[in-house]
Amino acid sequence: MNVNDAAVIIGAYEHPGRELPDKSLAQIHAEVAIGALADAGLTLDDVDGYFCGHDAPGYGGGWVSMAEYLGLTNLTYMDSTESGGASPIYHVSHAIAAIAAGKCNVALITLAGKPRTGIQPGGGGPVAPQDSFEMGMFTGAGLVSTYALAARRHMYEFGTTSEQLAEIKVAATKHASHNPNAFLQKVLTVEDVVNSPMVADPLHRADCCLVTDGGGAIVVVSREVARTLDRQPVRIMGQGEAAKLTNGGRLDLTYTSAVWSGPRAFEQAGVTVDDIDYVSIYDSFTITVLEILEDLGFCEKGQGGRFVEDGALVAPHGRLPFNTDGGGLSNNHPGHRGGVTKIIEAVRQLRGEANQGVQVPDCEIALVHGNGGDLGTRMRSATMILGRDL
User: Fold this and answer.
1) Taking Cα atoms as reference points, which of 352, 347, 381 lies closest to residue 366?
2) To the nearest whole percent, how much of the chain has pLDDT over 70?
3) What is the pLDDT of residues 40-79, one digit of tens each?
4) SS3 letters for the chain?
5) Nearest to residue 101, comparing CAs of 73, 79, 132?
6) Rounded distance between C-alpha atoms, residue 226 and residue 232, angstroms
7) What's the whole-number mean pLDDT along residues 342-359?
8) pLDDT tens, 116-131?
9) Which strands, in side-by-side order, build the sheet including 77-79?
10) Average pLDDT, the chain
11) Which of 87-96, 127-136, 307-316 has the lowest mean pLDDT?
12) Which CDD domains match (predicted)?
């Protein structure tokens, strides 16, 4: 039996808040947990598996303190795998494996952050082995500048333009205008994007993701549990994980680790890019989306700029509708970790519950992709293909 047949996604919930000054980080985790369980028709007492990243505050990579805070007294399996923005997608894959192995039956995955009005955990810790070599080289450089290096190299190699990158932001803003909870509601034009202030050449402010509070949660359950619940399940058809390292400094900035995680997910799912109706693509920056689309095989390497032109990503009738909630570029990027919202919107699309105006007709197969780390240095990816359950 394919391990994926053992479990389904049955609950998904995104916190409606984007600025939450009066809530603690633990409160946000708790609220999204309760929301996702309610969506599934379950309660905290039903949970026997808990998964979180280092955005969860406290001991044990966060899960010990959060399990206590949530009152999860029936846990038989716990996982605090940390993969940045890709963490929730890793967690879904690990939850499936745990359920298939009989380690748990109801897996709760939470993510939350407060970088807009509070402090985001996850910093500090032991010095990484590369830090003594690299920190001096990166003095004065920020996260945006390393993504800008990737964008500039892609432009140099393939002729990609700022206007083409802007098409990605324009699509995101059009989708966010249908989302009452989206942080940015204004629809932008290509001219608006390229005329926004330059942050790190060639990336403008509008090429960059949001900084928001908030969070989300996912519930994965065994097939046996799903049959007892009155909620539309979502199949996990295929998964892939991969990492891209610096290769001793011989680093090609024009591709991501999606070149490995994507084919693994497609092979396991038994589908091709032509079968995908909707994509949730990690959108920390516009260049992130463009390179991932290429690496997943939706177009040839170097052709991403042309691929996204002329409304190709705009729902409901574009060639490849993407991030129909507005994504991290316009809706929500809780705690600088957009992976959970990518899963949530894919679940909405497959259930036919996306916002009016962006629901993809007869959406049967969706792809979710998350990134962790830095496009300009080392990174890890997780790709997951989801299907409408029969």
Assistant:
1) 347
2) 93
3) 999 999 999 999 998 888 887 777 899 999 999 999 999 9
4) CCHHHHEEEEEEEECCCCCCCCCCHHHHHHHHHHHHHHHHCCCHHHCCEEEECCCCCCCHHHHHHHHHHHCCCCCCEEECCCCHHHHHHHHHHHHHHHHHCCCCCEEEEEEEECCCCCCCCCCCCCCCCCHHHHCCCCCCCCHHHHHHHHHHHHHHHHCCCHHHHHHHHHHHHHHHCCCCCCCCCCCCCHHHHHCCCEEECCEEHHHECCCECEEEEEEEEEHHHHCCCCCCCEEEEEEEEEEECCHHHCCCCCCCCHHHHHHHHHHHHCCCHHHCCEEEECCCEHHHHHHHHHHCCCCCCCCHHHHCCCCCCCCCCCCCCECCCCHHHHCCCECCCCHHHHHHHHHHHHHCCCCCCCCCCCCCEEEEEEEEECCCCCEEEEEEEEEECC
5) 79
6) 9
7) 98
8) 998 655 544 444 455 5
9) 77-79, 49-52, 106-113, 214-222, 7-14, 234-244, 379-388, 365-373, 278-281
10) 92
11) 127-136
12) SCP-x_thiolase
Instruction: Mean pLDDT check: name the lowest of 6-15, 37-46, 56-65, 150-159.
Output: 56-65
170, 312 Cβ separation under 8 angstroms: no
Place of tokens 């966060």: 62
Specify burial of residue 269 (Cβ count, 10 A radius: 0-12, 13-18, 19+).
buried
Measure the CA–CA gap between 381 and 83, rounded to whole angstroms: 8
Q: Are 335 and 54 in contact (CB under 8 A)?
A: no
Q: Which of 236, 235, 217, 260 is nearest to 382 (CA)?
A: 260
Q: Which residues 6+ apart lie within 8 Å of 44 measured at CB?
A: 33, 34, 37, 70, 71, 72
Band (pLDDT 50/70/90 cuts) for residue 155 is very high
Contact 305, 184 (CB under 8 A): no
Contact 62/80 with Cβ under 8 angstroms?
yes
